[in-house]
Amino acid sequence: MKIKNISILGSTGSIGSQTLDVIRKNPNLYRVEGLTVNKSISQLLDQINEFKPKSVAIFDDTAYEEFLTLVEEKVATSPYLAKINVYKGHEGLIKIAGSRTIDILVTAVVGMIGLLPTVEAIKNSTTIALANKETLVTAGQIVMDLAKKHQAKILPVDSEHSAIFQCLNGEESNKIDKILLTASGGPFRGRSRQDLINVSKLDALKHPNWSMGQKISIDSSTLMNKGLEVIEAKWLFDVEPEDIIVHVHPESIVHSMVQFQDSSVIAQLGCPDMRVPIQYALSYPSRLDSDFERLDLFKIASLNFQRPDLDVFPCLDLAYRALREGGTSATVLNAANEVLVEYFLNDKIGFYDIPKYIEMAMNEHDFIDQPSLKDIINIDAWTRSYIKNIIN
Ligand code: NDP
Ligand code: MG
Questions:
Q1: Which of 33, 104, 336, 369 is disulfide-compatible with 361, CB 3.0–4.6 A?
Q2: Rounded to whole angstroms, how far apart are CA atoms 331 and 328?
Q3: Would residue 82 count as lying in a domain?
Q4: What is residue 294's DSSP assignment?
Q5: Looking at the CA of 136, which ligand is closest?
Q6: 13: CA distance to ligand 1 center in Å?
Q7: Residue 274 lies in a domain
Q8: Domain end position, chosen among 104, 131, 156
Q9: Residue nearest to atom 39 of ligand 1 (CA)
Q10: Strand pairing of 4-9 and 30-37?
Q11: Residue 319 falls inside a structural domain
């Protein structure tokens, strides 16, 4: 296999660092071309020393200035630092993503900030290993149409979507009847609404099966993560909202399933480890050897499935509503959620304020049925300021 050039948006995060671990284990298959971070410059420096990328980008202004100073100090002992291109801000992310020499862009930033860099890569027909689900939630139609036009592959990294993608191997001519999307249920599975009114961010951050970034951990506690994934599944696999059925599956062993027209259900199983779907997106259509933990079904013994409780987790219901409405509804849902999760993480609002204000923003916004990329950016900005005005 020809060595593949990889760039990672968000290389210091949970997905970004696990992507680097996959690359570390397969030095003959992959080389790192570009890395981006928000503020974690000392971790970035370690990554530069280990992986020798050609270019890096730092989103945060202050961190960018600090990084330049750090480079000046360290260049005598690490001469490689003098050779790399260092870019700044959103433009910097776009520059890294838009390089024509990369084979795969791993989108592992959090939030819709990943949208324009992803669009830039798609325009070059670069393969996207997509973790950044917010990009598809906010602008699914535009991203998928553009990918089709430029024949850019979008390979899912999200474990459920990787599972569905694997279940569809060789099934191109067959009709999907339903997608059975599994969900761990998060840290609050089985709780009542009353139990959750006063939960803190620390309770919400304790995920039972996966260790992830803060934003997705809160999204998992509200089940908004599953809502975003329902929307992500619609765009990746072209299925109707009512044909995507969420199954709460506390063991997180079945990563999702596809039911076909003849009633057969195909599932993908494995121990919960994000490196498996990350590696598959990098090596597709091949599979690589790995030392990842093997599934021991005798030890697990039983697999359970339940319906989600939409009264306790209204965010999931709101995501279905956004998907049914189409147009700009999911853009509003996503932007409002991003801002509200930030407020929740700063102890400014309660758990149920998240769905409450998302619903208000969805009701209030000026709906556009066929939005352009510019419309999406405007509606996203409108939503963020609408929420900020309410909360302050
Ligand atoms: P993390 O919070 O762990 O990492 C986010 C990364 O993006 C970091 O490198 C961070 O840099 C960078 N970043 C954050 N904000 C900005 C910004 N405004 N501009 C530029 N860079 C930024 O997130 P995760 O790895 O958990 O999640 C990344 C994406 O993958 C999300 O969309 C999530 O939904 C999705 N995903 C994650 C899974 C997981 O297991 N973690 C599973 C499936 C999907 P810095 O370190 O400097 O802050
Ligand atoms: Mg997932």
A1: 336
A2: 5
A3: yes
A4: P
A5: 1
A6: 5
A7: no
A8: 156
A9: 212
A10: parallel
A11: no
What confidence tens digit (pLDDT) does each residue in 241-265 have? 999 999 999 999 999 999 999 999 9
- Ligand 2 centroid to residue 356 C-alpha, Å: 24
Which of ligand 1's atoms lies nearest the C-alpha of 15?
Answer: 25
Q: 40 is written with which tokens?
A: 């974690």
- Is 212 found in the same domain as 294? yes
Within this chain, do residues 208 and 240 fall inside the same structural domain, yes or no?
Answer: yes
Q: What tokens were used for 123? A: 């325009």
- The partner residues of 260 in beta bridges, in order of sequence, read 176
Residue type at position 386: Y
362 lines ligand 1 (CB under 6 A): no
Residues 149 and 165 in one domain: no
Res. 370: pLDDT tops 80: yes
Residue 148 Cα to ligand 1 middle (Å): 26
- Coil/strand/helix, residue 102: coil
Distance 34 CA to ligand 1 centre (A): 16
Return the ligand number nearest the Cα of 92: 1
Task: Supply the DSSP symbol for 113.
Answer: G
Q: What is the pLDDT of residue 1?
A: 72
Domain assignment of residue 272, yes or no: no
Residue 33 Cβ inside 6 Å of ligand 1? The answer reads no
Looking at 104, 134, 156, the residue that finishes a domain is 156
Query: Rounded distance, CA 247 to CA 167, Å?
Result: 17
Specify the number of domains making up the chain: 3
Residue 39 near ligand 1, beta carbon < 6 Å: yes
Nearest ligand 1 atom, CA 135: 32
pLDDT tens-digit series, residues 8-61: 999 999 999 999 999 999 999 999 999 999 999 999 999 999 999 999 999 999
* Contact 131 CB / ligand 1 (< 6 Å): yes
Q: Are residues 94 and 129 in the same domain?
A: yes
Residues 219, 199, single domain; the answer is yes
Tell me the CATH number at 29.
3.40.50.720
**Distances, alpha carbon 79 to alpha carbons 46, 48, 70, 268, in Å:** 14, 12, 13, 46
* Amino acid occupying residue 321: R
135: its two tokens: 């990009």
pTM over 0.90: yes
Ligand 1 pocket, mutate which of 38, 113, 161, 232 (most atoms under 8 A from CB): 38
Same domain, 205 and 142: no
